[in-house]
Amino acid sequence: MKNYKRNDLKHHANVGMVFFYIANNLKNRINPFFFPVLGNQAIMRLEMRPEEYVIKDAKKAQDTEADLLIIENKIAAISENGKKNSLNEQTESRLIMISEIKYKKQICEIGKRIYEQGFIAANNGNMSIRISDNEFLITPTGVSKGFLTPEMIVKVDRQGNVLDGEYLPTSEMKMHLLVYQERPDIHAIVHVHPPYATAFAIAGIPLDQAIMPESVIYLGTIPIAEYRTPSSEEVPNAVKQHVHDHQGVLLENHGALTWGKDLEHAYYIMESLEFTAKINWIAKQLNGDRELSKKHVQTLVEMKSKVGIKGMTPQGVETPDGHHAKKITPIREQSLSEQELNIIIERVSEKIINELKKHL
Ligand SMILES: [Zn+2]
């Protein structure tokens, strides 16, 4: 009986080897567009790459860009031939894995951009992507976001439990999960400390004035979410009241948080937010920060709705006839120069001395 089993296994192994040999030969010779005619089983055997290879070792996967591309092309070829529905579970899970690796790489790429832009220092900042209803890729705590590698990215569920990854997720994860919970249309989040926006957050000044057409259309108003200790349970509550009507918030005395339909979108909103804060600040230094009229803002709002951008928009101000904009910050009160102060001190001293002389 034992011998029979051994022989049987040997037989199966030989058949397997022969099939493997043929399949690998076919793989090198056949155009991927012919794969559908071979059927799913043949396709899977032709791929000959266990999922674990790509999923468990993200670093290795980085070196197999060409391999991933081949698999992607095969799947695209199947789809083009109208056989997408015939993809079996294994193929679909591989497709998900490929997307997961791509998303991890995208987080690393955006991490570099936020670092190079000076939006963060040391290990600050965090980013995340929603990859399914209950799965999120999020940056780890304690590492520079400018030097991330795919294997550092952590996968968590909507309760924040780690599903995959060696690192600890960011301590500010709760505010990310809150945004995803409240906004099913949002798929990515960026949190950083860009200097100009953070200065506005420290001063408690929201970005809610119509200072530039682009900001009115693409950014809208950015309110202040009241200060709460970072990473505490209270932060999500402070963000919650603003999450439905805006594309981001300034976290009071802390930094900025933006969300978008994908990571690049969330990043661009952050870039636009910081740019708007910077221009606003420079205009204030010139003592020339002027806000657009309500009439002009209305035209911009119409343009905004045409391009399908949601969220609150600055309202603009009433301006005198013929003026398209009006000064926001009142002109500062005149301060005395050093010379003027010296004259006053001199005069006062003289009077005091004269009074004292009278009593001597
Ligand atoms: Zn922070």
Spell out the helices and strands N to C: HHHHHHEEEEHEHHEHEEHEHEH
Helix content: 40-55%
Report the end-to-end length measured between terminal Cα atoms: 132 Å
Q: What's the Cα radius of gyration?
A: 31 Å
The CATH class assignment of the domain at 172-306 is: Alpha Beta
What strand line-up does the widest sheet have?
A: 4-3-2-1-5-8-7-6
Output the number of helix runs: 13
Q: Using the alpha-carbon principal axes, give the shape.
A: elongated
Describe the structure.
The protein has 360 residues and is α+β, with helices and mostly antiparallel strands. Among the domains are: 2-100; 172-306, Class II aldolase/adducin N-terminal domain (L-fuculose-1-phosphate Aldolase, 3-Layer(aba) Sandwich). The protein is built from 13 helices and 10 strands. A hairpin with a 2-residue loop joins β1 and β2. α7 (173-182) runs parallel beside α10 (234-240). The chain is elongated and about 105 Å long. The chain binds zinc ion. Zinc ion binds next to loops.
Please sum up the structure shown.
With 360 residues, the chain is an alpha+beta fold. The chain has 13 helices and ten strands. Among the domains are: 2-100; 172-306, L-fuculose-1-phosphate Aldolase (3-Layer(aba) Sandwich).
